[in-house]
């Protein structure tokens, strides 16, 4: 009998002794790395849920508890440069792959939040599945979402210290009115994701402004050159006229003097 794909997955899951959950944090922000975590739970932890449904204080408390009680855990990230190079989806999957691979124990089964299971994990021989809404229903994914979120928020606090004019500690890099206003006022910093539309528009606007400034400067330079040339031509004409007048006057004076001597 040939087993269906679903049956094969069920068998793999039933045989799994080490199950981990993986999730990411930070796909929507305009700045900073995207973070991911993988967690292999041990003893039960009360209060696990989708990190977005928990307060910052609760996330901090649970993060510490997860790190203490989990069988294994790992936090990883994909940089701003990788996000711009690969796109945010692929960078998120890369970060999750790094987190799973970074576990101190090999996972027999990997639950990934969302609808994309990293191809890199498949290529490396990991079994698992993507689970839509998994961060609210699978405890291991919930734990991973909490670790990833807390780690990313901490990184935003670090960015806030480096670039206080943007308010990263307040909006965590998301495109809030405050963040967009700061972008318009201060331009783009090295931690902004250049492929994201609001950031790209600022960069394009800056490029256009520079181009216009160059064009204006070039036009002004041409105008000044023309004006100088015209002024110089006038001066030369005046000088020539003056020289001609002087020459005529000199000739007349010489003629008069010669006439006097002749008389």
TrEMBL record:
Native organism taxonomy: Bacteria, Pseudomonadati, Pseudomonadota, Betaproteobacteria, Burkholderiales
Pfam families named in the record: RNase_HII (PF01351)
Region span, Disordered: 202-263
GO cellular component term, pick one: ribonuclease H2 complex
Broad class of the protein's primary localization: cytoplasm
Binding of a divalent metal cation, residues: 23-24, 113
Enzyme class name: hydrolase
Protein name in UniProt: Ribonuclease HII
Top-level taxon: Bacteria
């Amino acid at each position: 009998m040939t087993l269906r794909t679903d049956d094969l997955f069920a068998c793999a899951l039933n045989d799994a002794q080490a199950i981990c959950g993986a999730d990411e944090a930070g796909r929507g922000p305009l700045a900073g790395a995207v973070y991911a975590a993988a967690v292999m739970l041990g003893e039960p932890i009360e209060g696990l849920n989708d990190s977005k449904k928990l307060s910052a204080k609760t996330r901090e408390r649970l993060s510490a508890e997860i790190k203490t009680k989990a069988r294994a855990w790992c936090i990883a990230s994909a940089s701003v440069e990788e996000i711009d190079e690969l796109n945010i989806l692929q960078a998120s999957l890369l970060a999750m792959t790094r987190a799973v691979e970074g576990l101190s124990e090999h996972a027999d089964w990997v639950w990934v939040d969302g609808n994309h299971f990293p191809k890199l994990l498949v290529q490396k021989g990991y079994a698992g599945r993507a689970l839509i809404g998994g961060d609210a229903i699978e405890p291991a994914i919930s734990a991973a979402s909490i670790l990833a979120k807390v780690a990313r928020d901490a990184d935003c606090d670090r960015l806030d210290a480096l670039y206080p004019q943007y308010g990263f500690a307040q909006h965590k890099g998301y495109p809030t009115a405050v963040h967009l206003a700061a972008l318009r006022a201060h331009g783009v910093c090295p931690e902004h994701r250049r492929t994201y539309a609001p950031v790209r528009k600022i960069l394009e606007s800056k490029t256009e402004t520079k181009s216009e400034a160059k064009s204006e400067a070039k036009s002004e330079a041409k105008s000044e050159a023309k004006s100088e040339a015209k002024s110089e031509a006038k001066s030369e004409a005046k000088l020539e006229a003056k020289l001609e007048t002087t020459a005529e006057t000199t000739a007349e004076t010489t003629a008069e003097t010669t006439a006097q001597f002749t008389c």
